[in-house]
């Protein structure tokens, strides 16, 4: 049930001879409810054009679309639009890019709408050709190991597994990926190719954005050529200069009752006060933190071991899954941003979409306060993209400041280079931008509209549910670094977690979490040998794997050779879970191979140990069909480890380069080679 409020049923004594029987009461209540609904519906329609009085105090409704609302074709037809931009987004970037394309369409006589494939009847793509000069654009992120995002999975499966006739469909695709991952932009590449195979007409070339570099640059470079091509294709002309338009209108609501104001809930009002399963991304569980201890023994860095209590939540997890956590922004940053915008942070407001056909009525749950929005809903530490800077420029009172922001948000090569230097390389967030451009004072509501939504942070679970069924363990390094401007930037989630310490005599601190399932799994048979490579916090999922192997052995089962490659700087400083690992090693549960990079003159990393152990590796993966796992840094470590593995397969297996590549691909298909990596 996704009700906004719960109705209390009065209790009392029932007389022996009721005036109305149960059936009469049901009929009467149904009749009254139907009449009230009809009258309210009529009144709402009447008021909608002129005022939002009745709408203004209604909290956001999530996923309650009717079949008619699911029809993007009907929305396009009823509003005279020809452009629909679908997004597959896990962190919000693809959704943001889709919104920008739809908004820009007005300049090119292509009024657009943004659509979530998960909320649409995607079979209607076959009917889009019936709308004259129509175009479907797909902004699709590749997630994990070459997978579609959660909201795009059904669409991906649909085009993959059906022989559809897409003749007459005009389309373009922009993919979002990361070159440090092996399956770079797999989803965007596949959808672009598959739509062509099904007979659709590619209007513009596939765009591929790399998040390891400046994905913003890739996107604006692509759309710079995209729009002229679209104009040529449809025989239309640009209406001229870029017009800055607000997507949402502000409604201040000082009279809304406290019980109707969102205070950090993800979707359902009061969901953090009245918790009810199932718990997921839109309904997180407020988990008590039972343990939060430091793992580093010395040095200036910090690594936390955190245990979340999930007893009574009905949440289940397995070793290899991820824990997702909703953090809050730093209080000081929130205050600074409020002052820079001359805002009263306690003001209650709603931002209401000016596009009445959009299924997204608000950018985040409304009504709420500016303090709550900046604390719980907006990514204020993210580096602002060029479209944000372009809109902030309009609020500069000094012409030189206005010109500077316009320049670094332009598509000119010099402007792009300055954006890279001033924003990217200097790690300036929106607070820093406003501090360094003193004449820029945007209204707080526009800042709230422009900033992306604060996303959950994901951590590899470092425990096994077989040993810890009611707690989930996480291993996290505290992120903080000095920028080129001399500021101290802090990670949103780890800074938030670092403050959550359980104290005797006090209620346990609580954090909103949910479990995300993974394909990162131990082999079904415990006797299958495994090799695990996890330096630093890459150890996290393997701690759960080792716990599981130990559990199997204690149950009397035979366990296969379990080899762990772990690396850190110094044994006396950052050898996390040392006592546990050494104990497992002594008891024969794990074959421990540890590299301490700074404990000797010449640095030693896990890659050096792997190069020494080619016989062991081939024995496991070649002769005994074992499994190979990597967890940690995608950019360098994971790539180096894969290359070493290829070398072992070539030399020990007597295979060519191409055959070795195919060997690993076969291992991946058999789920014998798995990576849980991040950049």
UniProtKB/TrEMBL annotation:
Transmembrane helix among keywords: yes
Molecular function terms, GO-annotated: flavin adenine dinucleotide binding; FMN binding; NADP binding; NADPH-hemoprotein reductase activity
Domain FAD-binding FR-type: 282-523
E.C. numbers: 1.6.2.4
Chain residues that bind NADP(+): 301, 537, 597-598, 603-607, 640
Task of the protein: This enzyme is required for electron transfer from NADP to cytochrome P450 in microsomes. It can also provide electron transfer to heme oxygenase and cytochrome B5.
UniProt similarity note: In the N-terminal section; belongs to the flavodoxin family. In the C-terminal section; belongs to the flavoprotein pyridine nucleotide cytochrome reductase family.
Protein name (database record): NADPH--cytochrome P450 reductase
């Amino acid at each position: 049930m996704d009700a906004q409020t719960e109705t209390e049923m009065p209790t009392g004594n029932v007389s022996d001879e009721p005036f109305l029987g149960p059936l009469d009461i049901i009929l009467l209540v149904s009749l009254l409810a139907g009449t009230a609904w009809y009258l309210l519906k009529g009144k709402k329609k009447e008021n909608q054009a002129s005022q939002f009085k009745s709408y203004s105090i209604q909290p956001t409704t999530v996923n309650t679309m009717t079949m008619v609302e699911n029809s993007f074709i009907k929305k396009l037809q009823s509003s005279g639009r020809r452009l629909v931009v679908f997004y597959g987004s896990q962190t919000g970037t693809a959704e943001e890019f889709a919104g920008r394309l739809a908004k820009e369409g007005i300049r090119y006589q292509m009024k657009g709408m943004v659509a979530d494939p998960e909320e649409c009847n995607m079979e209607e793509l076959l009917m889009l050709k019936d709308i004259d000069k129509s175009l479907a654009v797909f902004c699709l992120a590749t997630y994990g190991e070459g997978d579609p995002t959660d909201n795009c999975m059904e669409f991906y499966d649909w085009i993959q597994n059906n022989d559809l006739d897409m003749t007459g469909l005009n389309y373009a695709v922009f993919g979002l990926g990361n070159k440090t991952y092996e399956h770079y932009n797999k989803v965007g590449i596949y959808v672009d190719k598959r739509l062509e195979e099904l007979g659709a007409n590619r209007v513009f070339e596939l765009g591929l954005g790399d998040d390891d570099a400046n994905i913003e640059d890739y996107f604006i470079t692509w759309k710079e050529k995209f729009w002229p091509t679209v104009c040529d294709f449809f025989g239309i002309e640009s209406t001229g200069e870029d017009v800055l338009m607000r997507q949402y209108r502000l409604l201040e609501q000082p009279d809304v009752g406290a019980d109707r104001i969102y205070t950090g809930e993800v979707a359902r009002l009061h969901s953090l006060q009245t918790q009810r399963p199932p718990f997921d991304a839109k309904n997180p569980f407020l988990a008590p933190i039972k343990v939060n201890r430091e793992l580093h023994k010395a040095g200036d860095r910090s690594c936390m071991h955190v245990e979340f209590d999930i007893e009574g939540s009905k949440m289940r997890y397995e070793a290899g899954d991820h824990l997702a956590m909703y953090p809050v922004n730093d209080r000081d940053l929130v205050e600074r941003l409020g002052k820079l915008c001359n805002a009263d942070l306690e003001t209650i407001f709603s931002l209401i979409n000016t596009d009445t056909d959009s299924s997204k009525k608000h950018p985040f749950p409304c009504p709420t306060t500016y303090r709550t929005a900046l604390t719980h809903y907006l990514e204020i530490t993210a580096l602002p993209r060029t479209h944000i800077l372009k809109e902030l420029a309009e609020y500069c009172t000094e012409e030189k400041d206005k010109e500077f922001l316009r320049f670094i948000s332009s598509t000119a090569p010099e402007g792009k280079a300055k954006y890279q230097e001033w924003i990217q390389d200097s790690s300036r967030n929106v607070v820093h931008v406003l501090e360094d451009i003193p004449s820029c004072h945007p209204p707080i509501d526009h800042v709230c509209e422009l900033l992306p939504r604060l996303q959950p942070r994901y951590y590899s679970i470092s425990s096994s549910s077989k040993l810890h069924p009611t707690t989930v363990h996480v291993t996290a390094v505290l992120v903080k670094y000095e920028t080129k401007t001399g500021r101290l930037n802090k990670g949103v989630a780890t800074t938030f977690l670092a403050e959550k310490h359980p104290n005797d005599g006090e209620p346990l601190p609580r954090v909103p979490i949910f479990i995300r399932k993974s394909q990162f799994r131990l082999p079904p048979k415990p006797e299958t040998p495994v090799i695990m490579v996890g330096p630093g916090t890459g150890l996290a999922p393997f701690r759960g794997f080792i716990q599981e192997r130990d559990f199997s052995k204690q149950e009397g089962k035979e366990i296969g050779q379990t080899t762990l490659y772990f690396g850190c700087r110094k044994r006396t400083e950052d050898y996390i879970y040392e006592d546990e690992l050494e104990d497992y090693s002594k008891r024969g549960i794990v074959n421990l191979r540890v590299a301490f990079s700074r404990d000797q003159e010449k640095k030693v990393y896990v890659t050096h140990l792997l190069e020494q152990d080619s016989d062991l590796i081939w024995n496991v993966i070649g002769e005994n069909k074992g499994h190979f796992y990597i967890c940690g840094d995608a950019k360098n470590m994971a790539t180096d480890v894969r290359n070493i593995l290829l070398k072992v397969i070539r030399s020990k297996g007597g295979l060519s380069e191409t055959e070795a590549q195919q060997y690993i691909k076969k291992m991946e298909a058999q789920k014998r080679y798995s990576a849980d990596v991040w950049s």
